[in-house]
Amino acid sequence: MTPLNTLLEKSAEERKVATTAVARAQTLPHLKVVEISPAKYNIRTHIEELWEYRELICNFVIRDLTTRYKQTILGVAWAVIQPVFMMIVFTIFFGKFMHAQTENCPYPIFALAALLVWQYISNAVSRATNSLLGAGGLMKKVYFPKLTVPIASVATPMVDFCIGFSLFLLMMPFFGIVPTARILLLPIYFGLMVATALGIGLWTSALHVKYRDIFHIVPFLLQLWFFASPVAYSSTIVPAHLQTLFALNPLVGIIEGTRWCLLDTTSQVLVPTLIAAGIALSLVASGFWYFMSAEDAFADYV
Amino acid sequence: MSDIVVDFRGIGKCYNSGERRGGRGLLSGSMFQAERDCKKAASQAVWALKNVSFQIRDGEVVGFIGPNGAGKSTLLKILARITKPTTGVGKVKGRVGSLLEVGSGFHPELTGRENIFLNGSILGMTRQEISRKFDEIVEFSGVGSILHRPVKQYSSGEYMRLGFAVASHLESEILILDEVLAVGDGAFKEQCQRKIHSLTKEGCTILFVSHRMDQISELCDKVIWLDKGSLIDFGDTRSVIGKYESTFAVGSSRR
Question: Is residue A15 domain-resident?
């Protein structure tokens, strides 16, 4: 490099430094002041922060999606392989051998509607449960709103769900099912599905940081929950006097409601839907409350 | 005064021994007991910081010195909002960038490029801001030719350079450096020093932890001396380092 070049480069660098310095001096009086104290943040601060860090949530989702299918041969196909194979096995055993009641729907599609919902719930809850501990190294190094972590892990399986659901829509004509106007109500059930997963995920992720028992409890509870939900069977098999008790499981309302929208089933869905909505909302509200009360100690516990 | 960017008053941090060990079982204490434990079992409680107060002005480069376990890292973690103090109040003006450990937000499976965006957003940069600085970050890191490869294939040096490049290009008003210069080869160290010098010229406030007194005296305007969680001295670099070294010399000659 010639001396002239060096000189030019140096002065360019100095000029840049000088302009940055001026820009900095001008912005200083307008900077945000952050208060540091033992007090907890209020809900408004949390919401503002989530909005400020919305790109981080997206980046967490993108990270999880890109890393999940790296070094796999089948790639994104894994999103549909699981529910489709479960559907096939269920159809053979529950549909053909056990003649499960399906309110006159072809069994495969009757089961698949519920399997997609179940797969989402189960993936979202187990991802969220382990999410905070997974981000533990990060929490010890840099400040960011902790809520972004479980929210991102509940958002990621939505992609699998959407792929699976597109497959479902493609399969409908093969079973001679034409969607009615009821399909317009489907977003309500998807919303309740996400809310339920988020509510539970907030609880389990925060509890998992302090109590490692959660790691052993959650997979076990998910398995019990699966059998207590009308995935392989129709909720019509439950005796009439136990229906309300059965519907306390929010998945009853969500799954039967999804079937009602897509498959024109005739069972009563209003009461289970209202119960599911109540439970989902209280899970989200209490989940946020517990998460916020526990999050200050996360960095000290992981 | 308007140009004070860090104002700490009576900051203290208490860890109880259970907390430090990390998560516990459900049976080893009732669910909401943990918070109360700290106050109850005073014998188990460890005060990592006790009643620390100081003020830092805009553009100052402040060094943090003290033996291991003095509370330097805890203090900077409170400043960076990674953990909350048990007592006291503080005000921090502007964005705090921390280089407590560079590259900690990297995901090994992602490429260098993907990690720049991920790490940038963890540090609080917007996508637009990262795109604008992308070329500069790549140039600074010197890993442009392998940017398409997953960072798990990087050497630890390359990994660190990329991490430092992202973190130091965050437009933060306050930058925390925790012994980052202790690692890396000569050329990288020199590059870091140059970057820090240009950041100070831009008026960035820098908080710097190091055990090397030569680095501290070269870079810092002021020094905070901590020992066993208490603030021993805060003042001009030369005078504090002088006292620190004489205490250290006396201490070692006694042994």
Answer: no
- State how far the Cα of B71 lies from the Cα of B12, in Å rounded to an integer: 10
Nearest to A24 among B93, B123, B202 (CB): B202
* Residues of chain B with C-beta less than 8 angstroms from the C-beta of A209: 23
Closest CA to B217 of B245, B255, B198: B245
ipTM over 0.85: no
Count of domains in chain A? Answer: 1
Q: Which has more pLDDT, A202 or B96?
A: A202
CB contact under 8 Å between B118 and A59, yes or no, is yes
Range of the domain at A123: 47-301
CB atoms B198 and A209 under 8 Å: no
Q: Which residue of A has its CA nearest to B25?
A: A211
Query: What is the domain count for chain B?
Result: 1
What SS3 state is found at B59? coil
At position B30, the amino acid (one-letter code) is: S
Closest by Cβ to B15, choosing from A25, A28, A300: A300
pLDDT confidence of residue A143: 87
Residue B47 domain boundaries: 4-94+212-254
pLDDT tens profile A150-187 = 999 999 999 999 999 999 999 999 998 888 899 999 99
Count other C-beta atoms under 10 Å from residue B243's C-beta: 15
For chain A, the first-to-last Cα distance in angstroms comes to 51
Q: From CA A57, how far away is CA A37, in angstroms rounded?
A: 26
Cβ-Cβ contacts under 8 Å for A117 (sequence gap 6 or more)? A189, A193, A231, A251, A254, A255, A258
* Residue A38 is assigned to a structural domain of this protein: no
Dihedral angle over CA of B156, B160, B166, B167, nearest 10: 150
Domain annotation covers residue A40:
no
Q: What is the mean pLDDT of residues A81-100?
A: 92
How high is the mean pLDDT in each 10-residue block of chain B (255 residues)? 82 72 48 50 76 92 89 89 91 81 79 90 86 91 89 87 83 79 71 81 86 84 92 90 82 47
Domain-embedded: residue A11: no
Q: Which of A184, A126, A123 is nearest to A159 (CA)?
A: A123
Q: Which range, A238-242, A275-279, B129-133, B169-173, is most confident?
A: A275-279
Report d(CA B62, CA B224) in Å as an integer: 7
Assign residue B237 the CATH number of its domain: 3.40.50.300
Q: Write the CB contacts of B139 (distance below 8 Å, at least 6 apart in sequence).
A: none
Asked whether residue B194 is assigned to any structural domain, the reply reads no
Q: B67 - beta bridge partners?
A: none
Q: Is residue B141 part of a domain?
A: no
Enter the pTM of the model.
0.85
Minimum-distance CB partner of B89 among A36, A66, A301: A36
The answer to whether A233 touches A98, Cβ cutoff 8 Å, is: no
Share the mean pLDDT of chain A: 89
From the number of C-beta atoms within 10 Å of its C-beta (0-12, 13-18, 19+), residue A76 rates as: middle
Q: What's the pLDDT score for residue A10?
A: 62
